Amino acid sequence: MSANDQLPPSTEEREPLPLSLLNDLLYCERRAALKTVEGYRSANEHTNRGDIVHEHADLSGFEVAKGVTLLRALPVWSRRLGLNGKCDIVERRPDGSLFPVEFKLGKRKKWENDDVQLCAQALCLEEMFSISVPQGAVFHADSKRRRELDFNEDLRARTAEAIQRLHEMIWSSRVPPAEYRDACQECSLFDVCLPKATGIDSRATRLGRQLFET
Q1: Using CB atoms within 10 A of its CB, is residue 108 exposed (0-12), middle (13-18) or buried (19+)?
Q2: Is 202 in the same domain as 107?
Q3: Same domain for 193 and 164?
Q4: In this structure, are 159 and 122 located in the same domain?
Q5: Total number of domains in the chain
Q6: Widest CA span of the chain, in angstroms?
Q7: What are the tens digits of pLDDT across the range 24-77?
Q8: Domain ranges, residue 20
Q9: With a cut of 70, which residues of the chain have pLDDT below it?
Q10: Residue 182 and residue 190: Cα distance in Å, rounded?
Q11: What beta strand segments (E) does the chain contain?
Q12: Are residues 189 and 165 part of one domain?
């Protein structure tokens, strides 16, 4: 069974979700739920820096350099996956192939949430243009370096699973309990989530459940 077959057909009938939410989901499922189910939005130093990094890429249009057409802020969507959004940059190579590039803060480092978001963009491009998109890259602003990746079966399967989780979370209106971790300090929704205050109960509940299960 292919990765595409793992998605429920019902996603075609649902309101499309921003594919950028996949990044939030894999960073923190509660963060994704607070933004979508509860409708919270907030900014901090990290989100403001991210906006600056995306300023150039968010200017829609195209340019040609060394035979490669750079398509900026290209809208993408997939009816089958129930997703929409945009690619920061899509390189159209001389052979007609498409190569999506996602801009991110930080130094060159592998992050699953970035990889899944980029793979979802590739899946949208494949559906839109009926072509194969085997590779893409994440451009890390702080190190000014690309990290290329292959959209192999494993990454496609993980992306399909994340898409399904996202749809199920939205449609169930479920907001997971808070669980504090180091990454919480950098989250723009820290003051809304209050993981240190509300996460204690969730940890105690989980430990109690584990105690009775043993």
Answers
A1: middle
A2: no
A3: no
A4: yes
A5: 2
A6: 65
A7: 999 988 888 888 877 776 654 444 444 444 555 556 778 898 899 999 999 999
A8: 3-173
A9: 1-13, 41-59, 108, 198-214
A10: 11
A11: 17-18, 61-65, 68-78, 83-92, 98-104, 135-140, 145-150
A12: no
